[in-house]
Every structure is written in structure tokens, then in C-alpha cells.
Amino acid sequence: MFTERFLRDRRGVDLEPAERAMLEDAIAEVKTVGPRQIIVRAGERIEQSTLLIEGFMSRYIDDRRGLRQLVAVHVPGDFVDLHSYPLKILDHDVATMTAATVAIVPHTALDRIKTDMPSLIDKLWFATLIDAAIHRAWLFRLGRLDALGRVAHFLSETNARLISAGLSDGRRFALGLTQNDLAEICGLTSVHVNRIMRQLREERLCTFRSSLVEIPDPERLARRGEFDPAYLYITPALAPGEASKAQR
């Protein structure tokens, strides 16, 4: 089932079997895309939306020099560009960060869902509202936290999102990103991120080796990054710390 991670364990919002079946039927194609591939270009008309099944993707904006500013990172289970359904043209690019498997949902299929199953459209809208909440947290992270806090917040957020997707046990998860990716995500230089990762390791807050993140004490890391998972609307028992306790 390609949609099994979509809205998985989201507080107060569950897809009914008929809704999930209809969303599955809306998928026109499933394909694998290599890393660093542009899926959507800013300014181009879009007639489909992308559900991320495996891998990591980003949304970003290029400046005049061609340097990119990441504005979102997506994990498996995310509808990466569902907002393109009403907008049709985006003001940012969408690209893979790692190799990814994606499901393509034509906007004509979303039209049918809107007509035949309005309750599902409400839940798709809920997913876009979570995206907006994550974006607000992104602004807070870049605007108010110090360098170590930015990295700690991002890793705590990613841990929580992957717990919800069934891809983290609360203390350990795969993250196929580079230190340069973390630098772009956190508004830092790659040299600075290297120092921060060393500090996190020395303080026994987190280690990141060979694409594997290990967090000995998720609650400590969350405190250092001022991370509160409430804006993600995940089931409370799946919050970082709670999930790790469940594994003991």
C-alpha cells in the first residue's frame, strides 16, 4: 500500500479504509527518482501532486547567484506539493535530496475525490496545514535559535516525523543527508555544522555517522533545541522520548 505512511498516527485524523482505498486508486504512477533531481520547477504549470513513499525531498528557492535556500524538507508519507492542486504554479522548486520513490496523483483524480469523497479532501487539507505549521517552526528555528539549537531542533523534529512514519524507534533513524545539507537546512556553513556535530557528540546528545542518527536521550536533545512536537499533531505516545521509552 503506497499511502500507508500518509497521516499515519496523526492526532485526531485517521483515514477510513474507503478513504485510503480511494487515495490509492488516485495514484497514476509510482516511480524511483535519483538524488538531486528536480521534480517541480518554480513558475511551471503543474497538473499533478507527489506523494513521497521513500527517501527525502526538499523545497527551495534560488537567489540571483543560483545559491539555494531550503524552505522545507519532506520525509516518507508527505504529500510534497499538495498545495499545487489549487495553486497550479509554485514559487519554489521541489527536488529529491536522496534517491526517492514517489507516487504521482493527477489533479484530475483530486477533482474526483473532491466530488465523491469530501471527507478525504478535508484530510488532505489537514496535511497541508501541518506543512504550514512545520514551516512556521522552520522560521522560529532559523530566527531564534543558536547554531547548536538549530541542528538539535531539526534532528528532534525529523525524529518525531520519522517515528510517526514508522521509520524511527525514537533513538535511531537513517538520514541520508550530508553535512552540507544540514548547513543549508540550518542556515549555517558546512564547517560550522561540522563543529556543531562534534559538540553534539561530545555532549552525548547525538551522533551522526554513515547516514545513521543516534540520539541517546531524545528529551535532552529536544530541550536543547527548544523543540515541542505539538505542531506536528502526532499521537502523543509517539513523541520523542515516549517512543524510546516504549522500546525499553
Which key terms come to mind for this protein?
19% strand; 248 residues; disordered C terminus; four-stranded antiparallel beta sheet; Jelly Rolls; three-stranded antiparallel beta sheet; alpha+beta; 41% helix; single chain; Arc Repressor Mutant, subunit A
Query: Based on DSSP secondary structure assignment, what is the total number of beta strands?
Result: 10
- Major sheet summary line: 4 strands, antiparallel
Topology as a string of helices (H) and strands (E): HEEEEEHEEHHHEHHEEHH
In the CATH hierarchy, the architecture of the largest domain is Sandwich
CATH topology of the largest domain: Jelly Rolls
In CATH, what is the homologous superfamily of the largest domain?
Jelly Rolls
Cα-to-Cα separation, first versus last residue? 29 Å
What does this structure look like?
- The protein has two domains: 17-134, Jelly Rolls (Sandwich); 146-247, Orthogonal Bundle (Arc Repressor Mutant, subunit A), CATH 1.10.10.10.
- The protein has nine helices and ten strands.
- It starts with 16 loop residues before the first helix and ends with a helix.
- The protein is 41% helix and 19% strand.
- The protein is α+β, with helices and mostly antiparallel strands and 248 residues long.
- Mean pLDDT is 94; it is low at 243-248.
- It has helices at 17-25, 84-87, 107-116, 118-144, 147-164, 179-186, 190-202, 218-224, 242-247; strands at residues 29-33, 38-40, 48-54, 57-62, 68-74, 93-96, 100-106, 172-174, 207-209, 212-214.
- The strands form three sheets. It has a four-stranded antiparallel sheet. Strands 1-7-3 form a three-stranded antiparallel sheet. Strands 8-10-9 form a three-stranded antiparallel sheet.
